[in-house]
Specification:
The complex is a heterodimer. By secondary structure, chain A is α/β, with parallel strands linked by helices. Chain A is built from 11 helices and 5 strands, in the order αααβββαααβαβαααα. Helices cover about 45% and strands about 15% of the residues of chain A. In chain A, helix 3 packs parallel to helix 6 and helix 10 packs parallel to helix 11. The longest helix of chain A has 19 residues. Chain B folds into 4 domains: about 130 residues, Jelly Rolls (Sandwich); about 130 residues, CBS-domain (Roll); about 190 residues, 2-Layer Sandwich (Beta Polymerase, domain 2); about 140 residues, Four Helix Bundle (Hemerythrin (Met), subunit A) (Up-down Bundle). Helices cover about 45% and strands about 15% of the residues of chain B. The radius of gyration of chain B is 29 Å and the shape is globular. Classes of the chains: A alpha/beta, B alpha+beta. Chains A and B meet through strand 3 and helix 11 of A and helix 1, helix 2, strand 1 and strand 8 of B. Chain B: This is CBS domain-containing protein. Chain B: It comes from Marinobacterium lutimaris.
């Protein structure tokens, strides 16, 4: 994933989503399937989404991570995608995918420093459009697992709009938001400031450390996807039950 | 595009058995890996569960158990488990539990099998690991061993707080809060003369009971009794106690068995402190897998017999972990003692309660806490003075036979000298035993003492163990200044001599002859124990363990300077060689014995053994000189 500054993490709206609770992605997918014109996207929506009351341990999931040229979805583009298939019980690397893509915007030097993907690599890489069919097939029927949905959701939506004139919506379980629910319930008060209590970091590496997950080097889309997948397993093992409905986690 | 799992490959590369594999193979494994997170405390594999993967610990720690719930191994990052199931019949043999939060990489069966078949180093490692891990468990090494070999002494951090029986509950409570303790020993100070046997020892206070916080709450406050209630009304009597030199885990077992939380600790019959369950919990870590607890859990003789291999495993493990001979001797003695105790319990269940009280005695090496893996059963019974042979002896004979046969089945061979409770001569009332000892001590002849020296190392293991204490007091009192007796004992202690040393692959005898092998017990540890016993009796030592006796002897300062320490080192070294060779026999699948062929000794052992034998030989000369009939010591 791209770097996320602390200030970039906006979680206010996620609080209301928890209360809304029962996002019905299955129904939303039916609507979208009837509205969309693009055949691959239509097929994706027609594959459906799991019912909101499905216990989390029965939900097929894909952990997803993007490396991008920057953090503005309207200007920047995707450079690589990592996908790892998982269930609550097992993360299956056999079914992992990793693409380097040729972005439609310039690969800026500062982003190269972060994800290490070079100009010559992207020059040889395909455009997202060429792998779109395969990507959507992998995503079909699955719930995405990401760390900070602001990136994957917005970038894929924008990237598709640019390429096929239509955006995409998809259900995600955001491990960052799950951490935020625990550590960002209220703003640090006067007393916290007085005693210098820092906000707990909910970035991927710090969140993982809280669950005693090992340190992985960040900024490789596939490794980050794996890292988010493991984090979700740990979060559910610690704070939810395997029978928690997916609606308690997704958004 | 082929996904490359950098973190997984990196991790595998750092750990055996994967480190030996090619980059290409590692990359292939990584793409097949599955990952799973287990929160601390969750069961990862259950017994009998079908499994399809090798479990490799990426982070965290896992405990592997035996089917019966005993801890078998503890693994951390890079450790792997589940290979037994994969190599055998796919069903989990060793359940696994996450000790810490764990991330597990699972390597599917197909990949594992392919690696196992195609890669010799990998296969060797997985299999060799099996065997060594069977023998060595981290937990046993780090935690269990501490308990198996630490004396209760280490738990006694302060003197016992004591109060007289005449005190009131209020005084007791006051004292407890002043001292900040949760228990108080109540002592009875007798003014009347004690038993004639004790006549020449000063009258010691007798432990009458123990009072705890809980007693004050349950027996005083809850009942609304007056604060002036005598402590004797609310104290716990019939105390279970432990000896200071017993092992910590014996104290723990005593607490478990009798469901008590406080145990007075005695040293030479005098209380030196009280240990609480919390002391042990603090001392012990979370694992306890002891042969002894299995012994007490065994419900039948067959189950007891089944534990023999565990006893042997325990022995070899201690040897491998460089436990000293004192630790091993006492651990083995505790195990032997537990076998006796459990057999007597089972015997009483089968035959009914004994018609009169009795005490079962351990003799010789077991009483000295110097038992090894090859051991005769030397035992005897003291019966109540009201014993009527016609009415009662049938019961005790049956009980003795039950125990003796049971011990034989558990690897403690019958005593060749017939010193066993099955022998009518050694199954007698207390007064007869007192007469035996009086005769041996007052009218000693080398011949009469020849076969009875073993009785001078005696220990009560079951029933009225206070009778054993009484015989021990009688021995101490009567032998101390008895030069005729000591001279006879000393003469017998010289009958077995050490060899001179080694020449090529032969044992050099003092006669100049060569022999092929040497009996380390007969020519080494036994004459040392005999010699030490004579000195111990001469200085009035109440200890039975040879090392303890040596301490008393050194303190009494009867040996030339430094010789006591030399003897201690000699005993330790000869014992260690004997123990090591028994362990080697066991590992080679042979029946262990006490015989050693010089060709199997290292140069280091040869050299040190020669020195040790020299020390023994010199000490025997000194013994002969010191204990001459008529000489006042």
């Amino acid at each position: 994933m791209f770097y996320i500054g602390k200030e970039d993490v906006k979680t206010e709206e996620s609080g209301s989503e928890i209360n809304a609770g029962q996002l019905d992605w299955a129904r939303r997918f039916e609507e979208l399937a009837s509205q969309t014109r693009h055949p691959q996207l239509k097929a994706y929506y027609e594959a459906g989404a799991v019912a909101a009351n499905t216990p989390i341990h029965q939900v097929p999931m894909i952990a997803m991570d993007f490396e991008t040229t920057g953090i503005d979805a309207s200007r920047d583009d995707i450079v690589s995608i990592g996908l790892v298939a998982m269930t609550l019980e097992r993360i299956r690397l056999r079914d992992a995918r990793h693409w380097i893509l040729k972005p439609r915007t310039d690969l800026r030097e500062e982003s190269v420093v972060i994800h290490g993907i070079t100009h010559s690599e992207v020059e040889a890489a395909p455009d997202l459009k060429r792998i779109l069919e395969e990507l959507l097939e992998v995503m079909a029927g699955q719930v995405m697992v990401v760390h900070h949905k602001g990136i994957e959701r917005n970038f894929l939506n924008a990237a598709l709009k640019r390429r096929i004139g239509e955006g995409i919506e998809f259900p995600v379980i955001d491990t960052l938001e799950l951490e935020a629910r625990l550590h960002r319930r209220k703003k640090p008060g006067f007393i916290d400031k007085l005693f210098g209590r820092e906000k707990v970091s909910i970035r991927l590496a710090d969140s993982r450390a809280r669950y005693h997950l090992p340190h992985y080097r960040p900024h490789d889309a596939l490794t980050d996807a794996l890292a988010s997948a493991e984090l979700l397993q740990a979060q559910v093992a610690t704070r939810f039950s395997k029978n928690s409905p997916v609606a308690d986690l997704w958004s | 595009m082929q996904a490359e799992h950098l973190e997984i490959i990196d991790f595998l590369r750092r750990h055996q058995p994967f480190a030996t594999l090619s980059e290409e193979t590692l990359g292939r494994i990584a793409t097949e890996v599955e990952v799973s997170y287990f929160k601390a405390g969750t069961q990862i594999l259950e017994f009998g569960q079908l499994t399809d993967s090798l479990y490799v610990i990426r982070s965290g720690a896992v405990e592997i158990y035996r089917r019966n719930g005993d801890l078998y191994n503890r693994l951390s990052e890079g450790g792997f488990f589940g290979e037994f199931a994969l190599l055998r019949h796919k069903r989990t043999r060793f359940p696994a539990v996450a000790l810490e939060d764990c991330l597990i990489y699972l390597i599917p069966e197909a990949v594992f099998n392919q690696l196992f078949e195609e890669n010799e180093l990998f296969a060797d490692f997985v299999e060799v690991e099996d065997r060594t891990r069977l023998r060595q468990t981290v937990a046993r090494k780090e935690d269990a061993n501490e308990l198996m070999t630490s004396e209760i002494n280490v738990l006694v951090t302060r003197e016992a707080i004591m109060l007289d029986t005449r005190a009131t509950a209020h005084e007791a409570a006051k004292r407890m809060s002043e001292e900040g303790v949760s228990s108080l020993l109540i002592l009875h100070h007798t003014d009347a003369p004690g038993h004639p046997d004790d006549a020449d020892s000063p009258s010691h206070p007798v432990m009458a009971g123990l009072i705890t916080d809980r007693d004050l709450r349950n027996r005083l406050l809850a009942k609304g009794l007056s604060y002036d209630t005598p402590v004797t009304d609310i104290m716990t009597t019939d105390l279970i106690h432990v000896e200071h030199s017993q092992l910590v885990f014996e104290a723990m077992l005593a607490m478990l068995r009798y469901n008590v939380h406080h145990l007075p600790v005695l040293k030479h019959q005098q209380p030196i402190g009280v240990i609480a369950l919390s002391d042990i919990i603090r001392y012990e870590s979370q694992n306890s897998l002891f042969v002894v607890s299995s012994i007490f859990r065994a419900q039948t003789l067959d189950e007891l017999k089944g534990l023999v291999s565990e006893v042997r495993a325990c022995f070899t493990r201690m040897v491998r972990e460089d436990a000293n001979s004192r630790m091993i001797g006492s651990a083995m003695a505790v195990i032997g003692r537990s076998f006796k105790q459990r057999l007597l319990e089972l015997g009483e269940e089968k035959l009914g309660p004994p018609p009169v009280p009795y005490c079962f005695l351990a003799l010789g090496s077991m009483a000295r806490q110097e038992q090894l893996i090859v051991s005769d059963q030397d035992n005897a019974m003291i019966l109540d003075n009201s014993f009527d042979p016609d009415k009662h002896d049938a019961y005790f004979l049956k009980l003795a036979e039950f125990v003796s046969d049971g011990l034989a089945a558990c690897g403690y061979t019958y005593c060749k000298g017939d010193i066993m409770a099955t022998n009518r001569t050694w199954r007698k009332p207390l007064k007869v035993w007192e007469q035996y000892f009086t005769d041996w001590i007052d009218k000693p002849t080398p011949k009469s003492l020849l076969n009875s020296s073993i009785f001078f190392d005696l220990d009560g293991v079951w029933g009225k163990t206070e009778w054993a204490d009484r015989l021990n007091r009688l021995i101490t009192r009567k032998t101390r200044h008895n030069s005729v007796f000591l001279a006879c004992m000393a003469r017998n202690a010289l009958l077995r001599t050490p060899p001179l040393g080694f020449f090529k692959d032969f044992v050099m005898e003092p006669s100049g002859q060569h022999t092929q092998s040497i009996d380390m017990k007969r020519r080494g540890t036994a004459p040392l124990a005999d010699l030490i016993r004579v000195h111990a009796l001469a200085v009035g030592s109440k200890s039975r363990n040879s090392f303890e006796r040596l301490k008393d002897i050194i303190n009494a300062d009867i040996l030339p300077h430094g010789r006591g320490q030399d003897l201690r080192d000699a005993l330790e070294f000869i014992s260690t060689v004997r123990i090591r060779h028994q362990a080697l026999d066991l590992e080679a699948g042979n029946d262990p014995d006490n015989r050693i062929e010089p060709e199997n000794l290292s140069d280091f052992e040869r050299k040190n053994l020669k020195d040790a034998f020299q020390i023994l030989s010199n000490a025997q000369k000194f013994l002969k000189y010191r204990y001459q009939p008529g000489r006042v010591n």
